[in-house]
Predict the 3D structure of the following.
Amino acid sequence: MIGRLAEIVEIPDLRRRVGFTLLALAVYRVGAAIPIPGINGEALRAVFEAHAGGLLGFLNIFSGGALGRFSIFSMGVMPYINSSIIISLLQGAHVIPYLDRLHKEGELGRRKLNQLTRYLTLFLAAFQSFGLTVAMTKMPTPGGMPIVSNPTPFFYFVTVLTLTAGTIFIMWLGEQMTESGIGNGISLIIFAGIIEGIPSSILAVIQLVQAEELGLFAALILAAVVLAVLLSVVEVETAQRKIPVQYAKRMVGRKMYGGASSFLPLKVDQSGVIAVIFAVSLLAVPVTIVQFTPDAPWAQKIMDFTSSSNWMYQLIYAALIVFFCYFYNSVSINPNDLAENMKKSGGFIPGIRPGEPTAKHIEWILERITLGGAMFVAVIAVLPDYLQSQLNAPFYLGGTSLLIAVGVALDTMGQLEAHLIMRHYEGFLKKGRIRQRWFNVGTGASQ
């Protein structure tokens, strides 16, 4: 495999794409480390240490630690993902006929939908930036020291403008990475934020063992659980349900064509990390509203509700993941279109009539394998909180982080392999191919 990676350097176009992606990720990491002026770093650190296991800590992971530093990229890609969810839900529910027409217009309609998503991202970024700025000026800290000592109107204006511009820049950077680099830019930005925190989490485990706050046996159990989760995520992310397809023989002139057999691959976890990202983004909406009045009693109740120890929050989180898994499938896979295309090409599923019976059969299989994949993702998503409460595990080592990291890594490696094979090189694996699923976070579509 190392030899295959060396072949990337030999291909000018692929070398340029990989170099551009790495450069863009480096720019993002630099911006994530630049703090907003006028912030008390110690007080801010104390707040995030107190909420490390809740939704606030998870949002900090998604921003690559930028939120915990209150940097210029603190908002991360959440406004962009939220706007993508809104557009996708409106389109999937057929609420606005104009969006349905754009969806059917092909490439031109897709570009218009992306443009609407960008405008909505700008609005949400400004709204959430203002709420985050207000929260930083009013948020109570464990030590009683204010995060912002002197919040002037000029501070509000500059901070909101900076955070909004940071989100728009990240959105633009992700789109450039998708077009000129390797992989999906938005997913890679989230991936980079998660990977950045893994070394410090491993070091934290070692320090806990050295300080005898975590037993050696418990540390070994933690390592075994993380390894098991990693292997299971890889297995489920690449698992497929293959529906056999037979093609009828037909005479064209004096030659006989067809008669071959193939299969229709349906992924067990079609949505991948998209369902998790969408669920977290939706749960972040109450937290955004709370930011306007963080010292109110009802606001504190909402913050307590989003803590990792609340079983009701975990149940809602898991239910949202299952919902978005099914929603993603309904948007990305149309059984009627599959059945119609199969019928036009002379294909049929053995024992199933072409047309509507075939569409119902595909839908029946899709609903059942999606349930298994969705339940697996939901269990993996809530596993970090259990590990943290039982084994005192760092949050970065949780199942959600591994799910996102593995999913994005597999998709990116799949693209690299596709480029190598297209140029008559061998793939990364001697036997078989990496099953690629490159998804567009903005449009929610597989590509």
